[in-house]
């Protein structure tokens, strides 16, 4: 248990097991008071063929005004899918006005996977994100996002040299501890970590399935473990094992996300 209060800033996709519908239950279940700042409300995530999108950037200013009056502060921030470039400036205001002393800022850049940028994003967004991550204490990009952020050509084949150059290139953009997810080495899958210039790996079983939303599950469980006092490597290990369990629990016909609910229930039960 912890008495930490965290602010999760990302979209609310009504259907799709991603962003706030994943992050809020997981962090709450691990005993963290999880407040939400929805950046947009979508009918469903953008891997479906259609979606509606209500941008909440303007409403966030009203929310902040009330929060300033109430004097709300947060011990940590977890940022995921923001969707629009101006929201990065909004997030900077949020850090400035609502951080408790020593508040931890965890940024998952969320704009690409499997070598491609998600629908609705462009290089202007990527360039803004490359600057925005300088605000973070910890960043959680996948390999594709790390490549776009650093201008490194994307490769499906990973070598230690490729991954270490990639993570060192991120170090030119931010002083944050970097955890790159989805790295594949020696038939295993996991993360490469660079913390205070020291590189390490967390690798485990590679399952033959890749599911949408697993990055958000990783970010939530990583953050829960980290806020409970685990190290970055221990948190990454905990989060990757949790994600693996979710993938195992997801039936093949469930194509749009990972069934994290049963794993959460089992882990807590
Ligand atoms: O899981 C990342 C994510 C979050 N939110 C929305 C998305 C995606 C990935 O496509 O579409 C709306």
Which strand order do you get reading across the main beta sheet?
3-2-1-4-5-8-9-10-11
Approximate shape: globular
In N-to-C order, the SSE pattern is: EHEEHEHEEEHEHHEEEHHH
Strand content: 25-35%
Structural class per helix/strand content?
Answer: alpha/beta
Could you give a short account of the major beta sheet?
A: 9 strands, mixed
Tally of separate helices: 9
Give the termini separation.
Answer: 15 Å
Based on DSSP secondary structure assignment, what is the total number of beta strands? 11
Q: Give Rg in angstroms.
A: 17 Å
Low-confidence stretches: none
Care to describe what's here?
- The chain is of the alpha/beta class and 269 residues long.
- Helix content is 39%, strand content 27%.
- Helix 1 (20-29) packs parallel to helix 7, helix 5 (143-150) crosses helix 6 (160-170) and helix 7 (214-227) packs across helix 8 (232-249).
- It binds 3-hydroxy-5-(hydroxymethyl)-2-methylisonicotinaldehyde.
Supply the key terms:
alpha/beta; two-stranded antiparallel ribbon; 9 helices; binds 3-hydroxy-5-(hydroxymethyl)-2-methylisonicotinaldehyde
Q: In terms of topology, how is this protein built?
A:
Blueprint: E1 5-15, H1 20-29, E2 33-44, E3 53-55, H2 57-70, E4 74-79, H3 86-98, E5 99-107, E6 112-113, E7 116-117, H4 123-132, E8 138-139, H5 143-150, H6 160-170, E9 177-185, E10 188-195, E11 198-205, H7 214-227, H8 232-249, H9 261-268
Parallel strand pairs: 1-2, 1-4, 4-5, 5-8, 8-9
Antiparallel strand pairs: 2-3, 6-7, 9-10, 10-11
């Amino acid at each position: 248990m912890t008495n930490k209060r965290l602010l999760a800033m990302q979209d609310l996709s009504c259907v799709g097991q991603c962003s706030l519908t994943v992050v809020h239950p997981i962090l709450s279940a691990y005993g963290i008071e999880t407040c939400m700042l929805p950046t947009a409300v979508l009918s469903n995530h953008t891997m479906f063929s259609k979606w509606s999108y209500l941008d909440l950037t303007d409403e966030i200013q009203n929310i902040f005004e009330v929060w300033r009056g109430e004097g709300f502060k947060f011990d940590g921030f977890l940022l995921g899918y923001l969707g629009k470039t101006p929201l990065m400036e909004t997030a900077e205001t949020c850090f400035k006005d609502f951080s408790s002393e020593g508040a931890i800022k965890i940024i998952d850049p969320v704009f690409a996977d499997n070598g491609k940028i998600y629908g609705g994003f462009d290089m202007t967004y990527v360039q803004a994100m490359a600057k925005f991550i300088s605000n973070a204490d910890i960043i959680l990009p996948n390999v594709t996002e790390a490549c776009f952020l650093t201008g490194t050509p994307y490769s499906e084949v990973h070598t230690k040299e490729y991954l270490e150059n990639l993570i060192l290139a991120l170090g030119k953009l931010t002083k944050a501890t970097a955890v790159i997810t989805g790295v594949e080495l020696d038939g295993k899958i996991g993360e490469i970590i660079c913390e205070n210039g020291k590189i390490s790996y967390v690798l485990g079983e590679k399952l033959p399935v890749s599911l949408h939303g697993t990055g958000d599950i990783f970010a939530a469980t990583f953050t829960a473990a980290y806020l409970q006092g685990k190290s970055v490597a221990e948190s990454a290990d905990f989060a990757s094992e949790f994600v693996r369990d979710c993938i195992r629990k997801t039936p093949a016909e469930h194509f749009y996300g990972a069934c994290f609910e049963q794993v959460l229930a089992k882990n807590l039960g």
